[in-house]
Design goal:
Number of helices: 2
Number of strands: 27
Radius of gyration: 21 Å
Oligomer: single chain
Length: 427
């Protein structure tokens, strides 16, 4: 098995102090070479602080001074609003509308955010999640106010009442990926509550976000948009949902990835979880579905496999798909361990693999290790996950930014972690 990329790596931002790491993300703004880099400090799960950003107009050769991002976390009484519509970030260009389209995730938390994020694992959900899209008509210089995505009746966000109960518990979703299709539409994926009536439904645990709504699991839908020039906005259709019973994923389907295949079909790749269940009887997988009509009807959910037909393990961890400008091939990056994972881990090794778009499946002879746990240097708590990927628009090199959480230990020490930069060159 030959590596399909050559990999260089370096510490990009060292841990600033014990039990604190730095999260790094990098993106292009619009269609040119303008970059935005964001950094924040991480010291607890699913929450970060001290956000700042800087810009480069020459593809990273020179940078502006760091600017604080004061509105990243906004407060109204006992509520904290994280994410949501903003003037930062970027999106994909839709040539039909001439707009950049940016999916946006928003979380509103009641009370102390760190306490609230810890309480979720006790079944006490003190927050509400929603998804928006924003449009830019000037290549990312400015963005509109944002549009709430809806799959059911419910009010829009009220700037004067962040904790409005009707808003909190309608149209909840965990926003996924966006794809601009060759047929002139755009598709935005999202995790939403989907009703299930499996006879053994209550025999298996329901761990967030599978507890979004009683009698439901966290499934997936897609919003298919077609540009309406008269309204200068998109007209939306909501797809049929797909889901898994709790016996196959105790946390439903989340962190959705979308890609248009060579034949025009759509591939939706999803994270599941076997948290709280026997890891052998309920093996941890990555799951997929295919649409042949542009995103409205999806095939039954199946586990993604190698092109040999062999199964593979993958924990509940982030993954991504991207098509290389250099090779034109579709690739997946994520964690494929040898032993059966339990819930979120182990999140190593981190691997890259080419996707056979005809099946679809992972081409086993292209599987390449990007990084792995070093037994002499890294603790068993290492996480090679929660990364961002950027393809250099001048060179075609793939840049990966990843904070190696847990490299120095578990518990509070999991956050004593360096942010690394990896550069991948296709052979």
């Amino acid at each position: 098995m030959a590596a399909i990329v050559r990999i260089d790596k370096e510490v990009y931002v060292p841990s600033p102090e014990p039990r604190v790491g730095t999260s790094v993300s990098m993106c292009y703004i619009g269609s040119g070479l303008r970059r935005q880099e964001n950094r924040s400090l991480v010291r607890s799960s699913d929450w970060s602080d001290t956000h700042k950003m800087r810009y480069s107009d020459d593809n990273g050769r020179t940078w502006s001074a760091w600017e604080p991002v004061p509105d990243r976390h906004r407060v109204q009484g006992e509520y904290t609003r994280s994410g949501g519509p903003s003037q930062g970030g970027t999106g994909q260009l839709d040539p039909v509308s001439g707009r950049l389209v940016k999916p946006v995730f928003e979380r509103i938390v009641k009370g102390d955010p760190q306490e609230a994020m810890a309480a979720i694992w006790r079944g006490d959900r003190r927050f509400s999640d929603h998804g928006y899209y924003q449009l830019s008509a000037d290549d990312g210089k400015t963005w509109d106010h944002g549009h709430l995505l809806k799959y059911e009746d419910g009010p829009d966000f009220d700037p004067a009442s962040w904790g409005a109960p009707e808003f909190w518990r309608t149209n909840e979703m965990y926003i996924g990926a966006c794809a601009v299709l060759s047929n002139g539409t755009i598709v935005i994926s999202a995790t939403v509550p989907v009703p299930r009536d499996d006879p053994d439904h209550d025999q298996y645990p329901a761990i967030f976000p599978n507890d979004y709504r009683e009698g439901c699991v966290a499934g997936a839908v897609c919003f298919v948009g077609r540009w309406n020039p008269a309204r200068t906005d998109y007209d939306w259709q909501v797809s049929e949902p797909v889901s898994l019973p709790r016996r196959q994923s105790s946390r439903g389907l989340v962190e959705l990835n979308l890609a248009e295949l060579d034949d025009g079909n759509l591939l939706l790749l999803m994270r599941g979880s076997n948290a709280g269940m026997d890891p052998v009887q309920c093996p941890a997988r990555k799951w997929y579905s295919v649409s042949r009509d542009g995103g409205l009807i999806w095939s039954p959910v199946s586990d993604i496999r190698y092109d040999t037909g062999a199964t593979l393990y993958s924990p509940a961890s982030i993954s991504t798909m991207f098509r290389s400008r250099v090779t034109g091939k579709l690739h997946w990056m994520g964690n494929i361990p040898e032993a059966p994972p339990e819930g979120n881990g182990p999140r190593y090794p981190l691997q890259l693999v080419e996707i056979d778009e005809r099946i679809p499946a992972f081409k086993k002879d292209t599987l390449t290790v990007v990084d792995d746990r070093h037994p002499g240097r890294d603790s068993e708590h290492l996480q090679l996950s929660n990364f961002t990927v950027l393809e250099d628009r001048e060179t075609g090199l793939v840049e990966l930014y990843l904070t190696r959480l847990g490299e120095r230990g578990g518990g509070p020490d999991v956050w004593t972690a360096d942010a690394w930069r990896y550069v991948l060159r296709f052979e």
